[in-house]
């Protein structure tokens, strides 16, 4: 499985990593415990079984034209399921939603890409940055999140400045876009 992911600017990445550390210090599940070298804050736009060179080229063009984009982080969101997830909510603007639809459509229409994950369908997609997986996050509160000076806890602005693909089979990443 290949994911197409946006990467935040360095200040936003530091803030997310700080939130990971705060959760870990509080004894809560945190992505800080995931030590694989590819682990970094990211926003998953969509996934595909295969990314052929022609598809990568189309994605690169779309990402290069769209980035950088603003990112607005705003509070916690929890996902229930067999493995609960705690995340920092991303409040999408029109430009991010357009880019997401473009990436989704590109992967859906690309020969050999396979069936896209329905959770990334533009009608269902919940943009977020994962903070922790598994365990009980009911104690986690917005105060665990850094914020901008004078802003409420968990409210932060930044930019999406890069993109990559992640191959879950080989556990490797490749740059995709600027």
TrEMBL record:
Q: Which Pfam families match?
A: 2_5_RNA_ligase2
* InterPro entries (alphabetical): Cyclic_Pdiesterase
Protein name as annotated: 2'-5' RNA ligase family protein
| Superkingdom field | Bacteria
